[in-house]
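Hi, here's the filled form for the chain we discussed.

Project: internal
Contact: R.S.
Residues: 238
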Amino acid sequence: MSTNPVMRTEKLVKTYKTASVETPALRGVDLELCRGEFTAVAGPSGSGKSTLLHLLGGLDRPTAGEIYLDGVLLSSLSRDALSRLRLDRIGFVFQAYNLIPVLTVLENTAFVLELRGVALRERIARARKILGELGIEKYANQFPNRISGGEQQRVAVARAVVAEPAIVLADEPTANLDSKTSLELIDLMRHLNSEHAATFLFATHDARLLDRVSRLVTLEDGRIVRDEHRVKLAAARA
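And the returned structure, exactly as it came back:
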């Protein structure tokens, strides 16, 4: 694992405002994420986990503070440039899968590559390869509604990593899965982390996932209260 940070925040603040109320979600978060890390952000509901991932993914703008991805300051980018950076450098895995229902498993997986302009033959080959690694190549020609929730989430992971992004952001990726399926998915993501040096950052309540990460960042009331590196522990449980 490289010690070169792929993503960094400086005094990150996010406050949600209504007509008469300001609700702080993040209160000055400083965080560095290095290439190849398998990291989870934990904390009680309302601690700021999902807010942090949304800001890191450029899906929302911070109230104050800065975010850098591979040295690029996100706040310096236009809306179009930020969209392009998300496409080129960030993979997303959502709790609700967010697959495109009219596309097959193979087409969903290859969709990001298509948006990047990758030639048809190459994107199909790359999509089939990652589906094979995740054990779901046999579903390549199925539509999402014809496969199980666990299989759909594997497709979501395949789509997130097929283009080899700088970082994969996963918001509660196992929340809708049973225990056996969750453990299988976690092990598959650990495989991608190990074999491809894919960098993962999770927001999660799932103790099974928290038990297998190599770094655990704990948020409370929008602040980091603990940052624990557990490489040996995670390796021992692999």
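Let me know if anything looks off before we file it.
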